[in-house]
């Protein structure tokens, strides 16, 4: 695996495109994105105000939704949920309060390897977008999983998906 370019959040027109799913959710059309995306409402660590973003669900299971901070530890949503892990999530039509739990690098490896098995082409493209060039091997995906932070959003028990 090689790193094609440093990880950095998008700017300009690319940032606008990345924000389009947020507007779909705000217009109550988030269900169009299916269960592969998660609308995250979190609290800004400096402003204390609600913030919104849409992230891709890398893995869904009985205890929650695993997502990757594709732009690393500098991602604003990631820094915010570390500072205040109480969040609200929406996946499709399901909405719940949840707790953000950072995953350790070993868990991150497993999440990305599982994702790559289920979505091989998407995994390669996403890795390239995040600055990694992978050959499709499990070892390459494991290295990506060790370098990027992952978070599990665990819905409250009274609102289990």
TrEMBL record:
GO terms for molecular function: oxidoreductase activity. NCBIfam families: hi_GC_TIGR00026 (TIGR00026). The lineage of its organism: Bacteria, Bacillati, Actinomycetota, Actinomycetes, Pseudonocardiales. It comes from the Bacteria. This is Nitroreductase. Signal peptide: none annotated.
